[in-house]
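Weekly modeling sync, notes
Attendees: S.R. (lead), two postdocs, one rotation student

Agenda item 3: backlog of single-chain predictions. S.R. asked that every request posted to the team notebook include the full sequence so nobody has to chase files. The rotation student volunteered to paste the first one in as an example of the format we agreed on. Action items at the bottom.

Example entry:
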Amino acid sequence: MSNSTLHSLFRDKAWADGELLDSLATLGPLQYGEAHHSALRIFNHIHVVDAIFKGNLLGEPHGFSATNTPETPTLTTLRTVIGTLDAWYLDYVASLSPQDAEARLSFNFVDGDKGQMSREEMLLHLVTHGGYHRGAIGRILVQCGITPPRDTLTTFLHRSEPGRRGG
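Predicted structure, as returned to the notebook:
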């Protein structure tokens, strides 16, 4: 996979995260307490897995013993930490050489099992993992009568590069 494709996927991820965080701001915690809490828990899980794999990519300890945290962060906190990590991934992917992308790394999953993946596989895992769980959050929004944002690569590409609509 080319570096420009990976970069495009992570631009899409950052955009989709931001769009969904904006939608979650309309899900009132008083009116939709359980749904609001569940959505925050799922988004925090996405963030924690992103942070775990940042550590794996860098060969550094990530400090997590599970794929979520005991406490549930606020929407404001999530917006900050997700935005910061999304920006880090955009910079990381932009600087990744094809050889580094293909390099296979060894790491430990939080359950203690050992794993090996290439950097590119790890990055693709984060893209698909985040999309899967953003879909679950979108379903929560629908159940509360809120239309979720259109979280598709085609929507992102056509909004960010309107010239792609031309023939």
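Discussion: group reviewed the output briefly. Helices lie at 3-24, 33-58, 75-95, 98-102, 119-143, 153-160.
Action items: rotation student to repeat for the remaining queue; S.R. to check formatting next week.
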